[in-house]
């Protein structure tokens, strides 16, 4: 089987993309199923139609300056034609007003969204028959649990996993989505809401400054499987 040609789009984020993006690149390549090109200037990369020709998966770890209009158009076209997309954590904070990206994500951090403390909680699998989560047990993770994400443009989506947003930790008292899937044209989208790593330590000892979330086995397994599904529609990874 040929490896999944993946374009990782990063370079700006309020979270520490200098650690998260290389970690995810290395995680995927270590599986043996992916070859990943990581770019720090998404606009320039997405304007290169030759580069995009063989991309099967876009991995978006980006929250910053809007991409150029030609880059957006090429990205939309590629996904409509069947390229997969993975949206990681704070990537759902950005792209304000870009309808296509908002439709791909299905849920976005918009007015009214928030999160409590970086803390330990349980991720509950609620769609156990989906290829990504089939056989995947519930798992405990340290992370930043987003709440009250905004559904965008009446896009239908399927929630694969949730976590209880504990009011004692600054949460809502509700079960909040942490993994979901949707479609954009022929393209499959996996939205991994988990994935916090902060660029500052706040004086020392802040666990959200560590790579604890990314080092979690459940996070790694679900992310890898979500990437494979978005690219191929099937999951062979354990």
Helix run count: 6
The top-level CATH class is Alpha Beta
Overall mean pLDDT stands at 97
The class by helix and strand makeup works out as: alpha/beta
Q: How many strands in all?
A: 11
Order of strands across the widest beta sheet?
A: 2-1-3-4-11-10-9-6-7
- Cα(first) to Cα(last) distance is 17 Å
The low-pLDDT segments are none
Going by CATH, what is the homologous superfamily? Class I glutamine amidotransferase (GATase) domain
Tertiary shape: globular
The CATH topology corresponds to Rossmann fold
Protein architecture, described:
By secondary structure, the chain is an alpha/beta fold. It has a single domain (4-110, 151-159, 178-232), classed as 3-Layer(aba) Sandwich (Rossmann fold), CATH 3.40.50. It contains six helices and eleven strands. It has helices at 17-30, 42-46, 49-52, 69-80, 99-105, 217-232, and strands at residues 4-9, 34-39, 57-60, 84-88, 107-108, 114-125, 139-147, 150-151, 158-164, 175-184, 187-192. The strands form two sheets. Strands 2-1-3-4-11-10-9-6-7 form a nine-stranded mixed β-sheet. Strand 10 and strand 11 form a beta hairpin. The longest helix is centred in the last third of the chain and has 16 residues, at 217-232. The radius of gyration is 17 Å and the shape is globular. The two termini are 17 Å apart. The model has no long low-confidence stretch (mean pLDDT 97).
């Amino acid at each position: 089987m040929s490896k999944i040609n993946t374009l990782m789009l990063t370079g700006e984020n309020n979270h520490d993309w200098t650690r998260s993006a290389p970690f995810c690149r290395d995680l995927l390549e270590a599986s043996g199923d992916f070859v990943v090109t990581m770019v720090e200037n998404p606009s320039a990369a997405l304007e290169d139609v030759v580069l995009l020709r063989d991309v099967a998966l876009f991995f978006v770890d980006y929250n910053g300056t809007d991409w150029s209009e030609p880059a957006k158009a090429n990205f939309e076209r590629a996904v409509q034609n069947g390229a997969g997309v993975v949206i990681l954590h704070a990537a759902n904070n950005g792209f304000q007003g870009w309808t296509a990206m908002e439709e791909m994500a299905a849920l976005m951090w918009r007015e009214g969204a928030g999160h409590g403390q970086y803390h330990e909680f349980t991720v509950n699998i609620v769609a156990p028959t989906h290829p990504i989560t089939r056989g995947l047990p519930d798992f405990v993770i340290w992370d930043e649990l987003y709440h009250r994400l905004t559904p965008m443009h009446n896009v239908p989506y399927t929630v694969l996993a949730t976590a209880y947003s504990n009011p004692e930790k600054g949460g809502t008292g509700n079960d909040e989505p942490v993994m979901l899937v949707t479609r954009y044209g022929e393209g499959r989208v996996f939205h991994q809401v988990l994935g916090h790593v902060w660029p500052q330590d706040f004086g020392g000892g802040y666990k959200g400054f560590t790579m604890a979330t990314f080092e979690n086995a459940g996070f790694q397994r679900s992310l890898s499987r979500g990437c494979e599904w978005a690219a191929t529609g099937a999951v062979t990874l354990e």
